[in-house]
Amino acid sequence: MSEEKLFEIFINSLDFDVSDYLVEELTELQNEIVNDATFILKDNIVGDLKTYGGSVKKNEEKFKEFMKKAETELEKDKYKEIKKKLKEYLKKLSELIIKTCVVIIPVKELPWVDVIFRTIPRISYHDKVQLMDNAIAYYGEIKCFVGRTTVYGKIKGQEPLFAPFTGNIDLRGYKLDESQKEPKSHIFPYVSAIINSLDSILTKNQLSKYHEEFQRHGDPICDFLMKDSDLNDSMGKITTAIESKRSKSDIAVCSIIVPLPSEKKSIVLISDEGQGQPRFGNCFEALLKLSAACCQLPSPAPQQPISGGQASGPSGGGVRTPGGQELKSWTAEELASEAQKRLAAQPSLPTWNEEDLQKLAEERGSGIPAGMEVWKEEDLQELAEKRKRGGLNIPEWKSDQDMPECASCGYSLRPGWTKCPVCETPVGEKPSKEEKKEPKEPSEDGQTDDPEQEADSTEENTDP
Known about the structure:
It contains 14 helices and 13 strands. By secondary structure, it is α+β, with helices and mostly antiparallel strands. The strands form three sheets. Strands 1-2-3-4-7-11-10-8-9 form a nine-stranded antiparallel β-sheet, sandwiched between helices. A two-stranded antiparallel ribbon has the order 5-6. It has a two-stranded antiparallel sheet with strand order 12-13. The longest helix is centred in the middle third of the chain and has 18 residues, at 278-295. The radius of gyration is 48 Å and the shape is elongated. The termini are far apart. The model is unreliable at 301-317 and 451-464 (pLDDT under 50).
């Protein structure tokens, strides 16, 4: 198992929630961050700010109890190889709490009732354990309902884009309590789960799928937002995890629009991982323009009910693909009714009962279909013989039984012959032992296997 996977298992087992350590009293560092975040809104702020900052001192007993639980978990054998890094991670948690702060800003003449700012400190453990505290986020609830979850991000080497999100957001097990009366954007753990979902593989796949499979267009909401050049210029200034090098992935999602159907509202969130003062202005500017654009989205055309006399097929709820195409859907009862109608409209076809099928099977198994060529055993034997001769019809030669063979050379003798015309051996006489043996052909070097033959050859060669 990889180190990153073990880290993830360890963190999930601890169930750490930074909101457990938030208090209303801010430290000096947290006050400076809040002042930078609210400075650009000073002319639109109405009422008092609600500020919260992380504090270990105010929750010392709770933090000690948490660390004790973490040390017990750390002793398990599966963390043996990365135990040192996990200890470094635990040491960074107190700093992460201190650098967490939230401010709820009541505003006027803007798309939201409240704007929320928060820091997003993270502990990175890719190459080494380190705290990255530069990320921030602005978000709020707009008083309009966006029809579907929409994300914005960047793919390395490509232009940024908006993409529709299909299915449920990966909140990593967080369950939102719908009975809570406070605005959803004020629920810190819920917003934390949404921010964490931006790094989810599921979310990144939605962006790449819309880029590759749908060529970046087809969804009405995304098409509308992508045509707003002023909005895209502001969104393009956002620093993502690619530019900050927090993530090794080639895809980074930095913004999300989450519809709230029960309240007819939508949460719009922008995160920025830049450095220095410009990140506050860039992030809020992008949030303001995106929220305004969402309020200008054209309302989807209502679906007209189809009466029974006008319908050429079953009626059902409409479903839209990411490309904007509307598809029909049917209930089980409608599908059953359509099946009966199609069966009734089928042409008259012959039918068979079990006896007919059995009889037909017997006829096919016992007989030979008409027109099929049949061979007898003799025909097959003759065909085999022809194939042995290469397909030529050459008669096989057979020796005449009335013609005896010469006892010496094996030549066939006709009746009445007294001696063999080849070796002149009398018919019926056996060859004598003194008869010379047939000379053997010499080898390539002129030598033969018969020493007597070699001697005779030598004498002939030396004869003058």
